[in-house]
Amino acid sequence: MADTQWISLSSSELSVEINPLGAQLSVLRDRDGRDLLWNGDPAVWAGRAPILFPTVGNLAGGRYRLGSATYDLPRHGFARGRLFDVVATTPSSARLRLKADTETLKVYPFQFQLDVSYEVRGPTVSVIGQVQNCGRESMPASLGYHPGFRWPLPYGAARESHFIEFAEEEGSPIRRLDAAGLVSAERHVTPVSQRRLMLDDSLFKDDVVIFDDLRSHAVTYGAASGPRIQVSFPDASSLGLWTKPGAGFICIEPWRGIADQAGFSGDFTQKWGSFTVETGATQSLQMQITLLR
Questions:
Q1: 249-256 and 148-150 as β-strands: parallel, antiparallel, unpaired?
Q2: In this structure, how many other beta carbons lie within 10 angstroms of the beta carbon of residue 287?
Q3: Which of 34, 103, 275, 293 falls 20 to 30 Å from 281 in CA-CA distance?
Q4: What domains, with CATH codes, occur in the chain?
Q5: Euclidean distance between CA atoms 93 and 84, whole angstroms
Q6: Rounded to whole angstroms, how far apart are CA atoms 91 and 11?
Q7: Cis peptide before 123, with omega less than 30 degrees from 0?
Q8: Average pLDDT over the chain, rounded to whole?
């Protein structure tokens, strides 16, 4: 895929760049030019903030069944590797679009339209993903965000002093993945104490930490001193937290969808955590990223 021209957006507090390849938020800087987002170093993790569609996480065996047909889909779907059309831009906003074509229909037999809109206002980047069903039958889908923030943030605090603080008490057990990247039936005691999760590489030795019984619709990330980042997700059903142990990023991932459960062999329309878009209808997922000074 040839290099694409990134879209630059800005406000008085933030500057942003969007890559039409995957409609991915690829640069997020404060007003002093400090990078808040991971740089996509391919030697560690090539992502920055990929869009997850039409699945979130792994499928059992890397494939799914729909009626009598079987289709292969990679982890997190295909949207992150597709070039979106740029529908509209202003100095502070952009809308990008991916539509079904002959290639997507081979692996996802639905006439969809996925719009991803960005707006920068003051200290906040707002993201809205909208999935429209342009076909004649009900369409199962999942949608998720996967932004990787610098860990540590560029404000002088040590890496080990960073934490994620939930808006509400989160006492429910968490989920983990098995060796195949599927959600295990076993539930684990939450690592959150008094709304705060202290970040440590040991949390992620078994991959992502999954909160699938959320009370909170926002978290803040950072250290006790210095600016923090707030991530709000008013309509997400699950939240994933992930890094590669020792890496310089932490991903805060609001999802409407989740990896297959271990042992799942049902129809795609029965997939746990996914949603159904009826003919002509649209469903969405919102996320706001705010720099709290």
A1: antiparallel
A2: 23
A3: 103
A4: 7-292 (2.70.98.10)
A5: 15
A6: 8
A7: no
A8: 97
Average pLDDT of span 148-153:
98
Radius of gyration of the chain (CA): 18
18 pLDDT more than 80: yes
β-strand pairing of 124-133 with 69-72:
unpaired
Question: What does the buried/exposed string (b/e) look like for 170-192 if buried means 16 or more CB atoms within 10 Å of the residue's CB?
Answer: beeebbebbeebbbbeeeeebbb
In the chain, what percentage of residues exceed pLDDT 90? 98
pLDDT tens readout for residues 160-216: 999 999 999 999 999 999 999 999 999 999 999 999 999 999 999 999 999 999 999
**Pairwise CA distance, residues 164 & 166, whole Å:** 7
- Over 50: is that where the pLDDT of 1 sits? no
How does DSSP classify residue 105? H
